[in-house]
Design brief:
With 304 residues, this protein is an alpha+beta fold. The protein has two domains: 117 residues, D-amino Acid Aminotransferase, Chain A, domain 1, CATH 3.30.470.10; 157 residues, D-amino Acid Aminotransferase, subunit A, domain 2 (D-amino Acid Aminotransferase, Chain A, domain 2), CATH 3.20.10.10. It has eight helices and 17 strands. β14 and β15 form a beta hairpin. Bound molecules: pyridoxal-5'-phosphate. Pyridoxal-5'-phosphate (PLP) binds next to α6 and β14.
Length: 304
């Protein structure tokens, strides 16, 4: 990874190599952390964080689901994100806020353990590979099911929950695919390992609903809003896996992966990037760098 200079930790800016935790930190053993993945992009007015308030709101909800009181307000965290980008002199970057149960308590009752908060930023290019945004990726339906609603809350972005994604990711990688798509317990399509999914059929856009055990992605919400502006009908519906095989277009959305076409699913070729994917990508990539006045409200400028 591309190291930066400073990391914000519990209110202080510390040197990158010093931003460490104790080996007996609770989160390291039990996955008791909640986190966000956010991006800032270079604009004419300096770096702008994309939908920062929405990401911080989701962090608060994830923390709430795990009974983890955040010791900083949304405004304090927003200021901290700005500060750590500024001090590292970055124009565009990935931003990782994390709140976790820290050192001092062991065992499965975490409510007396401390809650530590850190925010790291670093440069991170195309998550699914440089060519992925134009050429698309090969995806595999995972044999691992997406976590069910009565196991852990799928709508929380919590550390331990990602073991599910990690198993699916390794499986797809070992089989020669770039990404895995997970079905939920009912057998319908849920998420990628770190992305939401969209299917284009007959000019309409389909995406799994919250009841399909998805993470409510902020990029997903962005795509829904952009599609609406483009006059493309969006339908939130259960998607059987076979609908992917006969789709006109498939793409995934996520902060890391951005808006990325899916070229094939299992051994079914869907085809090169299609016209609706291209149109929505174009709207998205204009919005994030401030080239579209309609999307100005999504940008949080670091140098205000
Ligand atoms: C499982 C899962 N689904 C979807 C997403 C996409 O969410 P967002 O667009 O908010 O990054 C992510 C990434 O955070 C994820 O981990």
């Amino acid at each position: 990874m591309q190291e930066a200079e400073k990391i914000w930790m519990n209110g202080e800016l510390v040197d990158w190599p010093e931003a460490t935790v104790h080996v007996l930190s609770h989160a390291l053993h039990y996955g008791t952390s909640v986190f966000e993945g956010i991006r800032a992009y270079e604009t004419d007015r300096g770096p702008a964080v994309f939908r920062l308030d929405d990401h911080l709101a989701r962090l608060e909800r994830s923390a709430q689901m795990y009974y983890m009181p955040l010791p900083y307000s949304r405004e304090q965290l927003r200021e901290a994100v700005h500060e750590v980008i500024r001090v590292n002199g970055l124009q565009s970057c990935y931003i990782r806020p994390i709140a976790f149960r820290g050192y001092g308590t062991m065992g499965l009752f975490p409510l007396e353990a401390t809650v530590d908060v850190a925010i790291a930023v670093w440069e991170w290019g195309a998550y699914l590979g440089e060519d992925s945004l134009t050429e698309g990726i090969g995806a595999k339906i995972s044999s691992w099911r997406r976590i069910g609603p009565n196991t852990v809350p799928a709508t929380a972005k919590a550390g331990g929950q990602y073991l599910n994604s990690i198993l699916a990711k390794i499986e797809s990688h070992k089989s020669g695919y770039q990404e895995a798509l997970l079905l939920n317990e009912a057998g319908f399509v849920a998420d990628g390992t770190g992305e939401n999914l969209f299917v284009v059929k007959d000019g309409k856009l389909f995406t799994p609903p919250v009841s399909a055990s998805i993470l409510m992605g902020i990029t997903r919400q962005t795509i829904i809003e952009l599609a609406d502006e483009e006059g493309i009908e969006v339908i939130e519906a259960e998607i059987p896996r076979a609908d992917l095989y006969i789709a006109d277009e498939v793409f995934v959305s996520g902060t890391a992966a951005e808006v990325c076409p899916v070229r094939s699913v299992d051994d079914h070729l869907i085809g090169p990037r299609g016209p609706i994917t291209t149109r929505l990508q174009e709207r998205f990539f204009n919005a994030i760098v401030g080239n579209d006045s309609r999307s100005e409200e999504w940008l949080d400028y670091v140098n205000q």
